[in-house]
Amino acid sequence: MQDAIKQCILTTEQMAKADQICISELEQLGRSGADLMEEAGLSVVREIERVGRGRKVLVLCGPGNNGGDGFVIARHLSCSGWQVQVALLGKVNDLRGDAAKMAERWEGDFESIYQTCLEGHDTIVDAIFGTGLSREISANLKEVFENINKLEAVKIAVDIPSGIDGNTGRILGSAIKADHTITFCRLKPAHILYPSKEICGEVTIADIGIADRIVQKTNPDIFVNYPSLWQDKLPKFSGDFHKYDKGHAVIVGGDKIHTGAGRLAAMAALRVGAGLVSVSSPDDALDINAAHLTSIMIRKRTEILSDLENEKLNCWCIGPASGVNEATKADVIEILEAGRHTVLDADALSVFEDNPELLYQKLSKNGRAVLTPHAGEFARIFPGIKDLDKLSAAKEAAKLSNSVILYKGADTVIAEPNGRTAISKNAPPFLATAGSGDVLAGLICGLIAQNMDVFEAACAGQWIHSECANEFGEGLISEDLLLVISQVLKRLK
Question: Which of 138, 261, 328, 426 could form a disulfide with 320 if both were Cys (CB 3.0 to 4.6 A apart)?
Answer without folding.
Answer: 261
